[in-house]
Write a structure and sequence with these properties.
75% of the residues lie in helices and 0% in strands. By secondary structure, it is mainly alpha-helical. It has one domain.
Length: 107
């Protein structure tokens, strides 16, 4: 089983750019597989965004996450933890997810 976020990354910058361009034009991507993948990605992004916890819980999670990454980095080396750093989606990604969900809702 491959998760939508993993497949979304594997789509590559060119593929994601095509999805973004089509969504800006008010249309789904012409390739049905990519359109379904974009819909699944957007659904997951919005699900995670709406399930946000309180500010206090978020701060605790960030602190514990940073500590855990520090321990793993110390044990296994920085190359292992480098891909995990960054946290969260950009405003642009969240806007694309809302746009994609609105497109699928209008069908």
């Amino acid at each position: 089983m491959v998760l939508p976020l993993s497949e979304w990354r594997e789509l590559g910058a060119r593929g994601r750019r095509g999805v973004r361009r089509a969504a800006r034009g008010g249309q789904a991507h012409p390739d049905p597989y990519v359109a379904r993948l974009a819909h699944a990605w957007a659904t997951e992004v919005l699900r995670v965004e709406t399930a946000r916890s309180s500010r206090r819980e978020q701060v605790t999670e960030v602190g514990l996450g940073a500590a855990l990454l520090g321990v793993v980095g110390a044990l296994l080396g920085p190359a292992v933890t480098g891909a995990s750093l960054g946290g969260g989606l950009s405003r642009r990604d969240r806007r694309l997810a809302r746009r994609l969900r609105a497109l699928s809702a209008s069908r």
